Amino acid sequence: MMEPVYHWLLSLVGIALLIAIASFFPKSEGMKHTLRLIGAAALSTALLAPLLRFDYQTYAGALQQYRDGVSWDAAAMENTQARLSRSIIESECSAYILDKAAQLGVPLQAAEVAVQWSTDGYWLPSAAVLTLPEGTARSDALADAIEADLGIAKDAQEWREGVQTDETE
């Protein structure tokens, strides 16, 4: 692909070098002027020669192949966007619950939020799995806050006991 460009540039440099060398020989101004005019015509012809040999059919075909290869699949993009949006909302809701638990003094180890697609066209938190250390009671204050702030009903909140955390480590 680059070889034709290399040969084209080499021919331009060669012609320019020939013109420069030839400009040293003529003694009269008229002859120098004629030589410059001939040199300029030769250089212009060499400069524009690739346009005369350009294969527009091949170029159009290659351009069409490129367009076909780059075509966007709108459904796949929408699906990816929906999954990203869902992950972000689940993550943000989980972080909110952990922050709220810390504010209320609840030793919550983990919070996993599930979301579902609403009829209005966006993700809504629908359920939560909350993990407490062993022997820790469920917090009604946190359950109320989750229901009030995120809209996850108390019966959609699953409270589990996890492993005992060691505060001395």
Describe the structure.
The chain is an alpha+beta fold. It has two domains: 3-70; 75-161, 2-Layer Sandwich (GMP Synthetase, Chain A, domain 3). It is 60% helix and 14% strand. The protein is built from five helices and three strands; from the N terminus they run ααααββαβ. A three-stranded mixed beta sheet has the order 1-2-3, with helices on one face. Helix 1 runs antiparallel to helix 2. The longest helix has 31 residues, at 74-104. The radius of gyration is 37 Å and the shape is rod-shaped.
CATH top-level class of the largest domain: Alpha Beta
For the secondary structure, the number of strands is 3
The count of domains is: 2
Order of helices and strands: HHHHEEHE
Structural class based on helices, strands and sheet pairing: alpha+beta
Major beta sheet, strand line-up: 1-2-3
Helix content: 55-70%
Short note summarizing the structure:
With 169 residues, the protein is an alpha+beta fold. Helices cover 60% and strands 14% of the residues.
Strands, helices and their partners?
Blueprint: H1 3-22, H2 29-53, H3 56-70, H4 74-104, E1 110-117, E2 123-132, H5 140-150, E3 157-161
Parallel strand pairs: 2-3
Antiparallel strand pairs: 1-2
Helix pairs in contact: 1-2, 4-5
How would you describe this structure in keywords?
alpha+beta; GMP Synthetase, Chain A, domain 3; 3-stranded mixed beta sheet; rod-shaped
